[in-house]
């Protein structure tokens, strides 16, 4: 619970952004004193470079990867763009073989992923979207059915940002590996990690991914920094794994130009390290609160239905902190604004796409034959470190009041 002015606020949009945790704040304050350029040869530069190296190593330990396999970027959107368009750009170079390539993406990805594949399609790549089932799960079989020898990349998010479904990345990776062995191809697997590392072990090689995108601001770290894991297996014959999207000094193994964000990287590393120490206990606590919220809403808001995690009959694993519902014939925007006036912060979908369209592309893909209201009336509640049982009660009361007020019109 937070306060702005006289209105007591209940924050239920942790999937949209997380507050900075104390460990991250302290790390940022300490590293901010290192003003030297990490690329400089003098002592001030060496101190800054050592800090960047320590941060990179700490994040690499949490992911179970080599430090040099991590590329620091400005956040999740840039990480996704570098993974997807960096591979396309590398393959588009003379002799790179981009012409005739095939690309596969889950239909329920974050807008920063889908937009990259749309761009590849416009540039001449053959793009196919793999559809989820009604639980929101992308089955390994559905991915395998689309694979071709000329497929370059498959992108499937780990934990969905709207409905919380956790995808079977390891099983998908195994299908891709078997296909590569049979056909002599080199299809890569990319995943947008989202907030999954807060609640699930984030060992990249165990997941079987070749690239993994992370955003510090979704993990209680600072905004403005993220990382892309790029496996050594991605290196091409020329030695470059990805072509850079930003040109300049050749930092980050030539994949991302620009002076490294020393203080932000320190905060990112501190946040991820702290999260790993409380992962299991926090996941259990939030799951209990989410179930309580879901049950109360189902009892007190007639007609409300659950999308994805927690839905009746759903068997797919899910993140513990996300609840997505639809309320018949009430627009998402009305509910969000009505709750905001009552001191509760929720969301309709990814903030990167707010205002662009009224329907959830994720829920539309999950329920392609459902009535239009289901995708047009989605509301996402996402819980976090400061969420309490009292917050759940306030949220439910505010939602009930907002819906009753609308239906009384």
TrEMBL record:
GO terms for molecular function: cysteine desulfurase activity; iron-sulfur cluster binding; metal ion binding. Coiled coil: none annotated. It comes from the Bacteria. It catalyses: (sulfur carrier)-H + L-cysteine = (sulfur carrier)-SH + L-alanine. InterPro entries: Aminotrans_V_dom (IPR000192), Cysteine_dSase (IPR016454), PyrdxlP-dep_Trfase (IPR015424), PyrdxlP-dep_Trfase_major (IPR015421), PyrdxlP-dep_Trfase_small (IPR015422). Residues 11-394 form the Aminotransferase class V domain. The keyword Iron-sulfur applies. This is Cysteine desulfurase NifS. It comes from Candidatus Kaiserbacteria bacterium CG10_big_fil_rev_8_21_14_0_10_59_10.
